[in-house]
Structures are given as structure tokens and as C-alpha cells.
Design brief:
Shape: globular
CATH topology: Metallo-beta-lactamase, Chain A
Structural class: alpha/beta
CATH architecture: 4-Layer Sandwich
Bound molecules: zinc ion
Number of domains: 1
CATH class: Alpha Beta
Number of strands: 14
Strand content: 15-25%
Number of helices: 9
CATH superfamily: Ribonuclease Z/Hydroxyacylglutathione hydrolase-like
Order of helices and strands: HEEEHEHHEHEEEEEHEHEHEHE
Helix content: 25-40%
Strand order of the largest sheet: 6-5-4-3-2-1-14
Largest sheet: 7 strands, mixed
Length: 271
């Protein structure tokens, strides 16, 4: 082989290596950025938050193991620890993914809405979560999770007595860059209670309640939040007909720009 060709090959290899390193470094930088991501987990909810302090928070985990591949795409390569996981309520499309997740990743703190699980899946998830090193806590209205540059204020439930969707944890995430209303599967009755409580519900971004079910997202609630972006976590051609035309109409009327995981994939909100 001529000497010249070997030199060119070496040069090409070095350049390829440099480009690879730059691409990996850029990707690692992206993964470290503070943001909220509505993960595309089909019919269900799973929200990943990378805080400005480089902590990882997961609110719900969808139904199956899609959450793992989604988190693998979002979290820094070197980071496989979730500092805080929150189960808004015990419906399978919110907690199912915690089962594989708890077996594969480290969750330091596992929070629930305080309800007692009534299903086999719910009990299995709680059993896994109680194993070391996860520590268990309950979050009710008035609780605050915070770092130097973010606040996560829990607005609902008042206690753990409400079942299923009515007991769904609702929280408001705030940073200097954005505020996001996180609603789980809370329905109209919860929305009315929140409005009546006089709590500040204003947010730039709304994670639409219960996948766009018509029993959530009342016009009064949408106006109280008064956001610009509405994010719907929903599976394509799901059997519930989510999101409903009624909710799409109400959101449009209230001035929200709608994004949905079945059409847009994972949705990112910079924090
Ligand atoms: Zn749900």
C-alpha cells in the first residue's frame, strides 16, 4: 500500500474520531439541560424533569417498559439514578412502568398520593419501592419539593382518602424560565376544588388532565391556568377516544397551542 494512502486513512480515522467525540459531547450536553419532557409512552403518562441542579424527577411511568427506552434517550449517559419518582395515582397507565423501572434503575425517593393500592400491580410496585434504597414518602396539598432554582408545589390531593382519578396528584412546577401545571388524571371535580381553594393556578404550560378526557379540562380550569401550551399524553388510536373533540375545542377556544405525544412524539419544555 502506498505510504500516501495510509497517511490519508489515518487522517480520516482521526477526523472520524474527533467528530464522534464532538457528537457524543453535544448529546451529553443536551441531556443535561434543565427541561420537562412528556415522554412518548403511548396511552399513559410519564413526565421526566431534569432540574437545573441536575436532579432527575419522574412523574408517573406509563404502563409498560417504554419508559425505560425513553429515559435512556433523555438522561445523561453517566446517570442512571432518579432522585425522585412520583406516582400521581395507582392506575396502571401511570404506575405500570415503575415495575420494570424499579428493577433496572435506582430510585432514591418514591412518592405517592397516599392512596392505598387496590390492584395486584399497585401492590407489586409498592413492594418493589419499599425495598432499599428507595425511601417512601406521601405528598399531599401544601407539600413542596424544591431546589435552588425550581419549586414543585403539590396542590392536590388534600389527603389520601380520594380514590383513583379524584385522588390524582396535581402539582405546579416553577422555574425562572417556565411554569407547568401537572394534572395527572384529575377530573372536573378536582379542578373545581382547586379553583375554589383560591390557589394560584397560573402556568405557561398545561399537561392536559386525563389524556384529554372530556371529564377533565373544564373551560373554567383552562382559563384559571391561562397557559399558552397544552400538552396531551395519549396513545395513537386508543380505545377511550382520547383526546376528545370536546377538550380539543375547549383548549382551542381558551387559546392554547396543542401538542400531543401520539402525533409529535416526546414533547420538551425548557426549564
Ligand atoms: Zn391515565
Amino acid at each position: 500500500m502506498p505510504q500516501e494512502l495510509t497517511t490519508w486513512r489515518r487522517l480520516a480515522l482521526v477526523m472520524l474520531l474527533c467528530v464522534s467525540i464532538i457528537l457524543v459531547a453535544h448529546e451529553e450536553y443536551r441531556r443535561g439541560q434543565p427541561r420537562l419532557v412528556v415522554l412518548d409512552v403511548g396511552q399513559g403518562d410519564a413526565l421526566y424533569i431534569r432540574t437545573p441542579e441536575h436532579q432527575d424527577i419522574l412523574i408517573d411511568a406509563g404502563r409498560g417498559d417504554q419508559v425505560i427506552s425513553q429515559l435512556t434517550r433523555e438522561m445523561p449517559y453517566s446517570d442512571r439514578t432518579i432522585e425522585l419518582a412520583i406516582a400521581t395515582h395507582f392506575d396502571a397507565d401511570h404506575i405500570g412502568g415503575f415495575e420494570p423501572l424499579l428493577k433496572q434503575m435506582t430510585i432514591k425517593l418514591f412518592a405517592t398520593n397516599g392512596a392505598t393500592p387496590t390492584t395486584k400491580l399497585g401492590n407489586e410496585v409498592m413492594e418493589l419501592a419499599t425495598q432499599e434504597p428507595a425511601e417512601l414518602i406521601v405528598l399531599h396539598a401544601g407539600a413542596r419539593v424544591s431546589g435552588d432554582s425550581y419549586l414543585l408545589d403539590v396542590l392536590w390531593p388534600r389527603d389520601g382518602s380520594e380514590s383513583a382519578n379524584k385522588g390524582s396528584l396535581v402539582a405546579l412546577l416553577k422555574t425562572a424560565q417556565a411554569s407547568v401545571m401537572l394534572t395527572g388524571d384529575a377530573d372536573n371535580s378536582v379542578e373545581r376544588s382547586l379553583i375554589a381553594s383560591g390557589a394560584d393556578l397560573k402556568a405557561d404550560v398545561l399537561k392536559v388532565g386525563h389524556h384529554g378526557s372530556k371529564s377533565s379540562s373544564s373551560t373554567e380550569f383552562l382559563q384559571s391556568v391561562g397557559g399558552a401550551r397544552a400538552l396531551i399524553s395519549v396513545g395513537a388510536t386508543n380505545r377511550y377516544g382520547h383526546p376528545t373533540e370536546e377538550v380539543i375545542e375547549r383548549l382551542t377556544q381558551a387559546g392554547y397551542a396543542i401538542e400531543r405525544t401520539d402525533q409529535d412524539g416526546s414533547i420538551t419544555v425548557p426549564l
